[in-house]
Amino acid sequence: MQRVGVFVCWCGSNIAGTVDVQAVSEALKNEPGVVFSANYQYMCSQAGQEMIKTAVKEHHLTGIVVCSCSPRMHEATFRKTAVAAGLNPYMVEIANIREQCSWVHKDVTAGTEKAIILGKAAIAKVNLNTPLTPGESPVTKRALVIGGGIAGIQTALDIADAGFPVDVVEKQPTIGGKMAQLDKTFPTLDCAACILTPKMVDVAQNDKIRIFSYSEVTDVRGFVGNFDVTIKKKARFVKEDVCTGCGACVEKCPMKKIPNEFNLGMDNRHAIYIPFAQAVPKVATIDPDACNMLKNGKCGICSKVCAAGAIDYKQKDEIIEETYGAIVVATGFNPISMEKFDEYAYSQSKDVITSLEFERLTNAAGPTAGMLVRPSDGKHPHTLVFVQCVGSRCESCAEKGKEYCSKICCMYTAKHAMLTRDKYPDTEVYVFYVDVRTPGKNFDEFYRRAVEEYGVKYVKGMVGKIVPEGDKLKVQASDLIANKQLHLDADLVVLAAAIEPDHSARPLATMLTASMDTNDFFTEAHPKLRPVESPTAGVFLSGTCQGPKDIPETVSQAGAAASKVIGLLVKDKLTGNPCVAIANELTCNGCSSCERVCPYGAISYLDKEFRMPDRTTKIRRVASVNPAVCQGCGACTVACPSGAMDLNGFMNNQIMAEVDAICK
Amino acid sequence: MKVRYFPGCTLKNRAKDLDTYAYRSAEALGITPEEIENWQCCGGVFTTARDEVATKLASVRALKDASDSNLPLVTVCSACHNVIKQTNHAMQTNKEFSDKVNRYLEADGGYNGEAEVYHYLEMLRDLVGFEKVKERVVNSLKGKKIAAYYGCLLLRPHKVMRMDDPENPTVMEDLLRALGADAVVYARRNECCGGYISVESPDAAKKNANAILENAKAAGAEMIITACPLCKYNLVKNGADIPVVYFTELLAEALGVKGEPNET
Amino acid sequence: MKHNNDLREEILRMSGVDTAKCMKCGKCSATCPAYDEMEYHPHQFVGMVEIGEIEPLLSSESLYKCLSCFACVDRCPRGVAPAKVVEAVRLTAIRRQGANHMTANDVPLILETDTPPQLLVSAFRKYTK
């Protein structure tokens, strides 16, 4: 028989306001096994914990029940208290009389009654508790970063800087991500390439970092400290270690009308290509959908002109299997399609472009070498209209767009407008906005400069319709301050398209068993206190895969994710969770039901010799749980037809005792 | 195949062309339109107020007729289509409304939005198929630059009409291409012609109609097709200097079944 | 200012619109083909109904200028449906006794040889109870 102590917490008035705590501690005094029962204002406080420790010593307690807040909140606290008092931490049970009782009830009588019942259930359980000891698992001291944009780059550099090897997996032929496509960056207007490309080179030259470009993660197994990851390195038909990036093949390739993704289709590339001059790795890639040699065996010019002999038309996808201690997701974002917003005539006129296209159009390395001209006729635009919030902040029942604010558009639009006015003073620049949101260091000052010093015309109101007619774009918009409908003839219209998570994120989340919100952004373990950790142990979040953010924020988060990874990788061993499944070999009939439902692959089968009643022996197939892999989800205990599977800390008899106590 | 057919008020007088050529073309394509007996005017516009019942009863009667005969209900006038389709949607989704309607109608077995409503264009696209239309063309419209004018009623509200992308519709352009013509795409094809405002503010209607015409012409249109008598009226009344015809007339011409004109 | 909350509730119920969803972007008024004819514009209908300032709308000619073309409904990023608000206010006005905006006596003035019945039918449906 246990000697149980009951400790009822007031939580100030949080619990005591709706629950008569005195009555609860009195009522629970007479439960089986209970030798001590008390209540206190804040059980989690230093004084409250001392009270528990003293009671353990004075009353020789073997089990503790704390009636307080959710175990998510303070179970760990009270387990530490138990350890300090010389008890096994798993001899503590929490009765949640706050979230599940006082907060949801208004009536004191009902609240008190329910709190007593919850307390009784916890006492019934703790009477059956046994001390548990967690196992340990080793930590593979290598990290995987998925995504090679600025988020992934910064995370990889910071982890490598601490001395741990890092692999970066990037699905494009080069790392760099969206930032590589940008022209200038707000609010300081430094050139994106000037600050990004040195970091890309650092990644390439760091001997702790391996880059798997043109590659995808196809499978993830295992758990924190030991993730077994399969990476598919797609055939680029060029030997990466032989290619010198000289570009001779690109020059001679006869297939030169392939829309160039890097410039968002505003110019063309060849079938063999290097995305941009500062690409890392700087090696060529053959587009198998465009290459004549690969499609029908006719051509082979690139192979002939390659002095290094790097072309390999027979190259196959390569499968790489590697183990990692930690995984960082940095899969980034894309602007949404403008397909459903054709009131803005994006599909009808080349001169209606997205903001990312505008970046390429003003970038010195872009399709026009930085000359701002109309894509349709190459003419200099005089009147430019920027439309904000296209697809952002849409109510879900509007059936198009996203509900959230994309966060970066106000600032990049101010930047575009300001730079346009700076470089081309003959232009008239209008920005139509719903709200201008500039919460960031030097952000509002930047926006005001666009208005006050550069004469950008900000109009409060949305654009309703854009009509291409002749060589003009007729813009119909609201000016809500003047209470007017405006009609402008524009030469170029730039749409601030909402951003969304990259489409690779959803399948990746499934592989990682990491949770996502309804918008496919990865969910953090705690929105305020654990912003770079996924709820799945060992999976961390970096950059826009977690939510819209700008470059400074992304870089801070990338560093934070790296520090969390480093904190994990410096450990030699991880303490596991002792609440894992156990198989009763005597009752197991080897049916495999548990193995089939286990999401972690923690169950295997052994052929074991058993002594039979008639003194003969028999070999039987029985389940065996790997405690290092088991996450204690309990699926197997439900699936087992013979009741042979049980879960430490949540044994069937403990759960039934709780139910009995509640239903008594 | 047979369909139940709701012509609407204007198709029996001012817009006889829309009606006659719809019949002739349908028959050429193997569709038999059966006109609903004793159909009543749809009312021209759907009253969006949720508590408005009486003005929607005529549409419900037509819908019930189609539902009872187990045939799709086909309309050709944009306004009739809009009113009937929105009424059907209200019968499907607004229980309070459908209960009231059923008490008025005392219809056998009641009606709860079972009918399938097709605009003639949807019928061509979904029941006949533009490929089949293309095969039946005898007088190709090759080389003709024709602009489709949708107006508002065919497409909106999109959540109910579900006919096409409301901002970038293609059904009429696809029809034009099937008939061999060059479809002229222009941004104002889904803007309002002015509708009934021409009763009170002819100048406002004129402004809208002119903007549409200018936009279509700037895009190279030599002719405009429409499915709505009121659209045609507003465009023609306000000085269209290119032909504005019903899409059914063009269809009948291409299919070689135009026959004698009959406009009153 | 005196605000009429009963009328506000009635209009919200009739229209089925939740005016609180409006984020005041003005896209409805930006897209309205009848804007220049109106004293109060679509976004003002939504905003004024939201705060219960409905009497000025009831007596405004703007009620009869909306074309019910639904451009504002389909383009509203918040799913607010301003045209339905306008219609509910208009019905509130014309349902009052003797408040029909158009009568049969007006027809001869409008009627021309080419007037399609659809025009009259639609106008009557919009302007009378």
Greatest interface (CB-CB under 8 A), with counts per chain: B-C, 46 and 38 residues
Beta-strand residue percentage of chain B: 5-15%
Overall shape of chain B: globular
Topology pattern of chain B, helix = H, strand = E: EHEHEHHEHHEHHEHEHEH
| Proportion in helices of chain B | 40-55%
Q: How many individual helices of chain B? A: 11
Q: Stretches of chain B where pLDDT falls below 50 for ≥5 residues?
A: none
Average pLDDT number of chain C: 91
What is the count of DSSP helices of chain C, taking H or I runs of 4+ residues? Answer: 8
Strand count of chain B: 8
Attribute tags:
heterotrimer; B: 264 residues; alpha/beta; Glutathione S-transferase Yfyf (Class Pi), Chain A, domain 2; Rossmann fold; 2 domains; four-stranded parallel beta sheet; C: 129 residues; mainly alpha; Fumarate Reductase Iron-sulfur Protein, Chain B, domain 2; globular
Task: Report on the architecture of this protein.
The complex is a heterotrimer of chains A (664), B (264) and C (129). Chain A is an alpha/beta fold and 664 residues long. Chain A folds into five domains: 4-126, 3-Layer(aba) Sandwich (Rossmann fold), CATH 3.40.50; 143-234 and 317-332 and 502-569, FAD/NAD(P)-binding domain; 248-305, no CATH class; 334-500, FAD/NAD(P)-binding domain (3-Layer(bba) Sandwich), CATH 3.50.50.60; 581-648, 2-Layer Sandwich (Alpha-Beta Plaits), CATH 3.30.70. Chain A has a five-stranded parallel sheet, covered by helices on one side. A five-stranded parallel sheet of chain A has the order 20-27-21-22-23. A four-stranded parallel sheet of chain A has the order 2-1-3-4, sandwiched between helices. The two termini of chain A are 21 Å apart. Chain B folds into two domains: 2-120, Glutathione S-transferase Yfyf (Class Pi), Chain A, domain 2, CATH 1.20.1050.140; 139-254, 3-Layer(aba) Sandwich (Rossmann fold). Chain B is built from eleven helices and eight strands. In chain B, strands 2-1-3-4 form a four-stranded parallel sheet, with helices on both faces. A four-stranded parallel sheet of chain B has the order 6-5-7-8, with helices on both faces. The two termini of chain B are 30 Å apart. The model of chain B has no long low-confidence stretch (mean pLDDT 94). In chain C, helix 1 (5-15) packs across helix 6 (82-94) and helix 3 (42-50) packs across helix 6 (82-94). The A-B interface holds A 339-343, 345, 347-348, 399, 465-470 and B 158-159, 165, 167-168, 185-188, 191, 214-215, 218-219.
